[in-house]
Amino acid sequence: MQSIRFLRIPRFPPNVLFFHLLPLKPISKISIKNFSSQIGSSPSSSSSKLLFRQLFEKESSTYTYLLANVSHPDKPALLIDPVDKTVDRDLNLIRELGLKLVYAMNTHVHADHITGTGLIKTKVPGAKSVISRASGSKADLLIEPGDRISFGDLFLEVRATPGHTAGCVTYVTGDEPDQPHPRMAFTGDALLIRGCGRTDFQGGSSKQLYESVHSQIFTLPKDTLIYPAHDYAGFSVSSVGEEIENNPRLSKDLEEFKKIMENLNLAYPKVMDMAVPANLVCGLQHPASS
Amino acid sequence: MQSIRFLRIPRFPPNVLFFHLLPLKPISKISIKNFSSQIGSSPSSSSSKLLFRQLFEKESSTYTYLLANVSHPDKPALLIDPVDKTVDRDLNLIRELGLKLVYAMNTHVHADHITGTGLIKTKVPGAKSVISRASGSKADLLIEPGDRISFGDLFLEVRATPGHTAGCVTYVTGDEPDQPHPRMAFTGDALLIRGCGRTDFQGGSSKQLYESVHSQIFTLPKDTLIYPAHDYAGFSVSSVGEEIENNPRLSKDLEEFKKIMENLNLAYPKVMDMAVPANLVCGLQHPASS
């Protein structure tokens, strides 16, 4: 399957958005108000357009994120890092909230669980899978640094944050006045709360991870909220400022960081040999189409 | 131990707040700005004063909530439903964020885990334990419906929501313009996301729970965010409007609700015989002081 190259856009041109390929309907102020008053529009930041939900899969301690633009009459939604085992939960929530799932996205090729993106595509006609071109995976959209992923007039920008894997990206909400404030960064395994992803396989590199986080994440405004792909200690969110100050690995200098990463002595991930090949094809070894 | 009765205040008088018993310092606009830009002030709602964190304890699937007022120079903070096993995590986070823990609160006497409030009191001099008078528990502050629990100029109001236990309360952020919007309701086990607490022991009553939720929670603005004491399916937040529409138990009429609750056939909670007696004394069978 080819990525849909005509959707590629240069870095940050205004008003050229993926979702604009779908027909746009006029936005009624009344319908926005009614909708957001019913479902609680913004538990995450101060945009009344954004509906945001953080969802947890216990076995792999994975966070899946649901973002939707409730100011658009279609209520376009995207899922970041869905897990195969919780696809029904996620799609049921999307149905209950009256959202239209547009994108099922991954931050990278996971080694600890099977992505739900392929399964979602079999259940939601029209939903597109998204992953970075650098990941070497198949997906409907192969994104690159600087791309925008838009849902209505909200968007995520794509930042390359390799180091845990060669194809890791961080999705960051826009920096324009009509986008959520504070900004939100979905960091995958590049930056975890008080931690980071391991760098000892899948094209990992501790030097590259350090540079990715410092150049692409720690340069964001300090109040930017950090939403990682996992947490093992029960934390749900952090911020750039908090991680710059308190991250026990990434607050160190590069040499110390490399030493820490070389001495983690982590076990081989239990499901890696099954998960990585599956995740290279959206979690489906024999996808119906892709 | 006696509750501190002189802190009792009638329903919602302005400017008479628990925390005002501590010396107030002038609030500098610069210090607010600096602080919130460092730590990400508001992942939950649109108040720049509120720092909010949702924390998870995996074994009992319990949510602990940290709320702090970062516009006050003391950065007063409170914890709702801390768990004994994760007290060190919570206090470490509070230290890292430069907050001052004022209250360690429970929504009710838990049957499935041991509260962390007693342990917190041994580790944080000056922190006060809080629970409802109707719970029959010991604590520093025995609160009643209509009380305000203030931290700086932010406050929670206390609503009685018995039915899971006789002493259950819901804490709700204030409804004044300077309070977080949308409002946030910490519902304990009275209202769970797409569920509710069981009503077959600890003075439980399905009729009473139904009336509590319908009169005290479902009457809040529909965008009020619901933060329960537990979730077993990986949901983190809901809203009043969403639960009115989609809660498979509480969206039914009273008779159907009672039938559902009578036929749950739930197992006896594993740790109840240990947890309830401990939780009646802040989680400490032999508390140093209380």
From TrEMBL, chains A, B:
InterPro entries: Metallo-B-lactamas, Mito_Persulfide_Diox, POD-like_MBL-fold, RibonucZ/Hydroxyglut_hydro
Membrane-traversing stretches: none
Residue intervals of the Metallo-beta-lactamase domain: 61-230
UniProt catalytic activity: S-sulfanylglutathione + O2 + H2O = sulfite + glutathione + 2 H(+)
Keywords: Acetylation, Dioxygenase, Iron, Metal-binding, Mitochondrion, Oxidoreductase, Transit peptide
Entry's family note: Belongs to the metallo-beta-lactamase superfamily. Glyoxalase II family.
Protein name: persulfide dioxygenase
Organism: Cucurbita moschata (Winter crookneck squash)
Gene, per the UniProt record: LOC111446332
